[in-house]
Amino acid sequence: MKTIIRNLAMLSGAFLMGISLHAQDKPVEAANPPANFKHATVKVNNVDIHYVIGGKGEPLVLIHGFGQNWYMWNRLLPELSKHFTFIAPDLRGVGESGKPDSGYDKKTMASDILNS
């Protein structure tokens, strides 16, 4: 009985996670930052790197996780912008950044951000 309940719980969790992931998906044109933030792009290592920037103070670069983009920080932008110049890039291959055929190793993606 415990095995059945555990399996049902895992299936329910996976089902709900799938729903929540789809509910968070937004078309690129709908992913707008709050007021006083703007989209920008810089060419680094022959790839266009998109980022959102705004706020005032010391720079704070926040890198999204796997399967995410800059938008994961969207709700934090207003508060962080009171203390920092917030910079949220899309890593190569994600969001509005370029999608080259190669360069998806951590060292190259770190170089993209460091040289931006």
UniProtKB/TrEMBL annotation:
Protein name stated in the entry: Alpha/beta hydrolase family protein
What SUPFAM superfamilies does the record point to? alpha/beta-Hydrolases (SSF53474)
Q: Which Gene3D superfamilies match?
A: alpha/beta hydrolase
Per its UniProt record, what InterPro entries does this chain match? AB_hydrolase_1 (IPR000073), AB_hydrolase_fold (IPR029058)
Q: Does the keyword Signal apply?
A: yes
Question: Which Pfam family, just one, is annotated for this protein?
Answer: Abhydrolase_1
Question: Where do Basic and acidic residues bias regions lie?
Answer: 98-109
Q: Which domain of life is it from?
A: Bacteria
Task: Alphabetically list the UniProt keywords.
Answer: Hydrolase, Signal
Which N-terminal residues, if any, form the signal peptide? Answer: 1-23
Q: Does the keyword field hold Acetylation? A: no
Ranges for domain AB hydrolase-1: 59-113
Give the span(s) annotated as Disordered: 93-116
Q: Which GO terms fall under molecular function for this chain's record?
A: hydrolase activity
